[in-house]
Amino acid sequence: MNRKINKEGLGSQNEIIKTEPKIEISKDIKYFKIFEENIEFVASNGFDFPVGKPDGKGYYNAQKFQENNHLGDDWNGVGGGNSDLGDSIYAIGNGYISEAKDYEGGWGNVIRIIHLYKGKLYESLYAHCDSIYVKPNQFVNKGDQIATIGNCDGIYYAHLHLEIRDSVDLEIGGGYSTITKGYLDPTEFISKNR
Predict the structure, then answer these.
(1) What is the pLDDT of residues 90-117, one digit of tens each?
(2) What pLDDT does residue 26 have?
(3) Interval 52-56 mean pLDDT
(4) CATH of the domain at 154
(5) Domains contained in the chain, number
(6) Given pLDDT bands bounded at 50, 70 and 90, which one contains residue 10?
(7) DSSP label at 174?
(8) Nearest alpha-carbon partner for 123 in 98, 88, 153
(9) Which of 29, 49, 74, 143 has fewest C-beta within 10 Å?
(10) Rounded-to-integer distance, Cα 136 and Cα 158, Å
């Protein structure tokens, strides 16, 4: 006999009806399961730079991590101005696209890739993209073209804002902060994990 549960969790005749507790799977566990089922996309071969593949040739880091409280690196073409508008952006490592969307305003088009490397999850974030060539829930390999460099419809000179996070799925944030928990120096991280 089925009984409806009222807001106190009691049956219509004050019987206690047992319900299974709702268990939320943490996003970390979700990503570990995704990689377990797609082991070939684990970032076992390290990381490369996102422009001028694989070593950033033809580009420079115009605003480094924590310069002016910056939470990433800004990669610009050596020609300056908008000389790099439309240039290729590459996945820094094998991974899973968790997000690819237009945040509008100062962020513009953003791609977020989750990487599993040496048993730990990392996230790379690519902002101000002109064109996006990937979709959420897709896998990429290191060096795959994922987007082109943009300028947020003229808000900035063209460049790529790259962040690397060791806490996945953080809020998008503002790109600048004195609080760096969850954020890594992108150039240092890539250089140490080639």
Answers:
(1) 999 999 999 999 999 999 999 999 999 9
(2) 78
(3) 96
(4) 2.70.70.10
(5) 1
(6) very low
(7) -
(8) 98
(9) 29
(10) 24
**Domain, as residue range, for 145:** 27-192
Q: Which residues pair with 135 in a beta bridge?
A: none
Whether the CA torsion 47, 49, 50, 55 is positive or negative: it is negative
Under the banding of pLDDT at 50, 70 and 90, the label for residue 21 is very low
Residue 12 lies in a domain: no
Residue 181, domain member (yes or no): yes
85 vs 76: CA distance, rounded Å: 9
Q: What is the DSSP secondary-structure string of 28-92?
A: HHHHHHHHHHTGGGS-TT----SSIIIIITTEEEEE-TTGGGBSSEEEEETT-TTTTTT-EEE-S
- Is the CA virtual torsion 24, 28, 29, 34 positive or negative? positive
* Domain assignment of residue 2, yes or no: no
State the pTM of this model. Answer: 0.86
Q: What are phi and psi of 149, to 5 degrees?
A: -70, 135
d(CA 81, CA 85): 9
Q: Which of 82, 86, 101 is nearest to 156 (CA)?
A: 82
Cis peptide preceding 54, ω within 30 of 0: yes
- Would you say residue 79 lies in a domain? yes
